[in-house]
Q: What sequence folds into this?
């Protein structure tokens, strides 16, 4: 599928693979890597400090994609991938072992970001992601850095994602973070509803969801009052646009930034006018012959509307 | 484009039904009608397409191309897909909605 790259189109993450490394994170990582380089220069006999360990892990994450592509043999590639797959675990352990060190927060953020940057479905019961979010809630719920974490879990599905977003919205004192929590929670609820709609008639997908998130949880979601959840998402989008409209959304690999107002209003338009069951908004324009026409000219016929590009 | 053969056959097979395939060719500030017409003629895309250079996409904000909607005879959105679904999914959905319109 071709993703439209112009400013006003909000990119939705394909359900398949997601690449990691958000733009701003690259900048941050670069800065941190410069410190890491300094740290590496230190004598090797002293045990590494938590900060040094963190920098080393961050560098591994940063270099990961390049290293994987450099691997020449299948064995080498396998080894690199196996080491990279353990990164979230190592970030998490670093945080768990040093709860009072400032790097704990950073390491937990990395855990969540790496786990949620891989192919869906991720996270789930007993996962690192769940444990990292629990520590973030316990120790850092007031941090100014949680806005981006909220965006990282918006395509989540697990209960821990929802609980985290609700906790940040309620307990974080900063308007920017509250705003991103509010927007992300609305997006999460909406996206989860959309995903649930894909399940009927797809037994393999259902089986994967059961495995990752737990049968009981998935079945409970399938029984929920769809209209009520949709309504809550709508109210949260409204609140995000009204109360936190000017807050900027960080640019990530799945979104091109903009303000909360822009994003929330676009989502509200989708919910109110472009959802299944709504009357399609009018389209007016010219056809390939330069002739003016309208979508409503075809009332009385069933229309398959295809947004396409010639290449 | 992968969906073209299926779309050609839909237009052909459903020509006596209350059905229309309508494209929205999407290119921000880019291709104009002459470019779109040339491609559609060459590829034998025998249906009508809006030529959008921004305004329609700004409103509908499709996740990408292709994106599909099925709109019933009363103008109500009945199905939507981001990305090309299996041909069968479109066929099944269309069949039901067209039956209602007949």
A:
């Amino acid at each position: 599928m071709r993703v439209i790259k112009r400013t006003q189109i909000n990119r939705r993450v394909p359900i398949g693979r997601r690449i990691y490394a958000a733009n701003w994170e690259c900048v941050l990582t670069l800065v941190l890597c410069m410190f890491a380089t300094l740290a590496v220069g230190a004598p090797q006999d002293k045990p590494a400090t938590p900060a040094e360990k963190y920098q080393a892990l961050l560098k591994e994450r940063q270099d990961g994609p390049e290293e994987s592509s450099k691997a020449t043999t299948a064995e080498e590639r396998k080894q690199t991938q196996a080491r990279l797959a353990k990164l979230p675990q190592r970030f998490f352990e670093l945080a768990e072992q040093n709860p009072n060190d400032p790097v704990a927060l950073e390491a937990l953020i990395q855990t969540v970001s790496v786990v949620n940057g891989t192919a869906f479905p991720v996270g789930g019961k007993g996962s690192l992601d769940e444990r990292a979010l629990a520590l973030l809630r316990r120790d850092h719920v007031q941090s100014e850095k949680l806005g981006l974490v909220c965006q990282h879990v918006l395509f989540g599905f697990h209960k821990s994602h929802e609980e985290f977003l609700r906790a940040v919205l309620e307990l974080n004192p900063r308007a920017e973070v509250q705003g991103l929590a509010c927007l992300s929670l609305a997006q999460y609820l909406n996206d989860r509803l959309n995903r649930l709609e894909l399940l009927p008639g797809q037994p393999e997908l259902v089986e994967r969801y059961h495995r990752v998130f737990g049968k009981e949880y998935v079945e409970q979601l399938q029984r929920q009052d769809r209209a009520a959840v949709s309504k809550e998402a709508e109210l949260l989008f409204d609140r995000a646009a009204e109360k936190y409209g000017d807050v900027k959304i960080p640019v990530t690999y799945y979104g091109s930034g903009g303000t909360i107002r822009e994003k929330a209003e676009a989502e509200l338009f989708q919910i109110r006018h472009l959802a299944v069951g709504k009357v399609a908004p009018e389209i007016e324009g010219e056809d390939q012959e330069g002739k003016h026409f309208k979508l409503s000219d075809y009332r009385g016929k069933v229309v398959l509307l295809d947004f396409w590009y010639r290449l | 484009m992968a969906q073209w053969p299926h779309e050609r056959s839909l237009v052909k097979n459903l020509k006596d039904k209350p059905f229309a395939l309508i494209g929205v060719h999407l290119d921000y500030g880019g291709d104009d009608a002459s470019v779109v017409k040339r491609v559609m003629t060459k590829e034998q895309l025998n249906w009508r397409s809006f030529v959008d250079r921004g305004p329609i996409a700004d409103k509908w904000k499709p996740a990408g191309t292709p994106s599909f909607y099925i709109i019933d005879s009363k103008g109500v959105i009945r199905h939507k897909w981001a990305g090309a679904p299996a041909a069968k999914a479109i066929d099944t959905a269309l069949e039901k909605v067209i039956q209602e319109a007949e």
Notes: Chain B has a mean pLDDT of 91. Residues 4-101 of chain B form a domain with the Glutaredoxin fold (CATH 3.40.30.10). Strands of chain B lie at 19-26, 48-52, 67-71, 77-82.
